[in-house]
Amino acid sequence: LGAVNWTKCDFTGIQWGWVNYAKQAKGLQLGFVNWADSMKGLQLGLVNVIKNNRTFLPVFVFLNFSF
Fold it and tell me: Does the predicted TM-score (pTM) go above 0.70?
């Protein structure tokens, strides 16, 4: 939990803040801007980016996911 959550390595759990970034995420990102290079989980926010998303779209509003 924080205003800006920035993880350069693997992250497992919940990131909750204004801006969330993780290189590789497993879990939930909840904030205004969520960014992950690769992810297995769910993003909820205004702008959601999963750079290497093969399940859904790389960028989407309100919700993005990859499993």
Answer: yes
